[in-house]
Amino acid sequence: MDRGIPIFKNGVPGWAIKIILFSLILPTLVLFFLPFANINAAAGYYGSEPADIQFAVALFYAGYIAFYSLERRFFNFLAAKEYFIIFTMLELLTTLVCYLTNDLYILFPIRFFQGMLFSSTVNLSLSLMFTRLHSERAREISFSVFFGMLICILPFTNLVTADLIDSYNFNLVYKGALFSYLPCLCLIMLCMNNVRLNARFHLYKLDWQSFVFWSIMLTLLGYISIYGQEYYWLDDARIYYSVAAMIVSTLIYIVRQRGLKRPYLHLGIFRFRNFKFAAFLIFVLYICRFAVNITNSFFTGVLKLDPIHVGYINSCNLGGLIVGIIISGAMILQKKNIRFIWFPGFILLLAFHVIMFFLFATEANENNFYAPLFMQGIGVGMIMVPTIVYAISAVPVAIGPSATSICSTMGYVGFCVSAAIINFCELYEKSRHYNAFQDHLTKVDRFALHTLATRGTELLSKGLSLKQAGKGANKQLVGAVNQQIQIRFAMDYYEMMSMMLVATLLLIALFPYLNRTAVYLRSRRLVPA
């Protein structure tokens, strides 16, 4: 990409260009994990289950990853201004549909299409944003900014939308996104020149077949992971045939890629040992990253915090992410040993899970959770970008885009596996602890009788009748048991995550090839995703 190309008109300052591009990216970023901002409110608005809301996020994620390799053809075909206008108009249209509908069968395909548009808009925006930077640093900074923004989406969305969702209907956020696109679109039309960043490459022989098979594989993976436990896995025909279809699509896709002169994704990247290890670390990182949802469930289900206060608490996590990204970006530019970046990051993640294990209780001061969430943010921020840079550095420059796509895919797989593990463990662990409590809480148990009598007396003193007080005491006891079950499940899950992180740290310490790859990007391509 030539820095001499007059992409923006003369007289437009650099700071204004960056603000315009960031403002254009922001609504699209918020749409990514928007359903997770308040999953119960979203489920209530669409008349669905929480699993359906999880699947809506997975579809957006799948669309983003599936379209990545095909998006470069459109990037080379259209001029930058045309590209922005077309895809922004499509984003406006899809956001308008999301605002007007509450039908899941309309929402699901729209979410997948929004993921495709997310890939296009973000790639071009960040490509333009860093054309003014020094070429040696622009690649690392562009990757740090994009993937840093990606991991900051969830706490940022919770923070900026909590008040709106709590006060109005869930779809009001889509209305806000609609209006936020319009000023940036007008500024783009006024400030940009109609120039090309690359030579025009016509859209003949588009490998849409690989895109279709890749999309089927990713979508079915999300469907199986999210709905598998609810439908009893392979005992249900829907999951059984979904697994069969995914396996068939995978085999066809692999055979097709081996026979193509220009494959959709170069499968040869899996011959590089360092790349495989980095992809594994991304997988582990995303499993740990989305375990923070259990902490949010603890805040709302046990401590009874409203979504607004949960968003405020998670702002500490957002601050930690930003700090971690800055630290890791500086260490990448200084070409530090990768072990010096990974070890502190994973140790902070381990410390977060261990501390939270001891903080889970029926009563707690919310101030105690600020430091652990800040530590978790720093850990994730320090690991994410260096790992992706390390993975891309481990393969030849020609197949670097495939390495980036696979890294994003491993993040998606980690997201799906995390959802599957949480759903499975939640059912199994809660059932196990419920049965354990049931063995003790009987009508002849002294502790249960004493608790019922105490709670009944308290309700009687507040003016309830004897019958109402008895029913109220039983209900309070059941609620207390459910809280204990949720706490025990969270402790068991975080204990399992801690053991996985210890094993990961041992692998990092013992892996003999870590220092054979320089942690810098050799490709001059500035597209970060």
TrEMBL record:
GO terms for molecular function: transmembrane transporter activity. It is a multi-pass membrane protein. Keywords: Membrane, Transmembrane, Transmembrane helix, Transport. This is MFS transporter. One of its GO terms (cellular component) is plasma membrane. The chain crosses the membrane at residues 12-33, 53-71, 83-102, 108-129, 141-160, 172-190, 211-227, 239-255, 275-292, 312-333, 340-361, 373-399, 406-424, 496-515. InterPro entries: MFS_trans_sf. It comes from Mucilaginibacter rubeus.
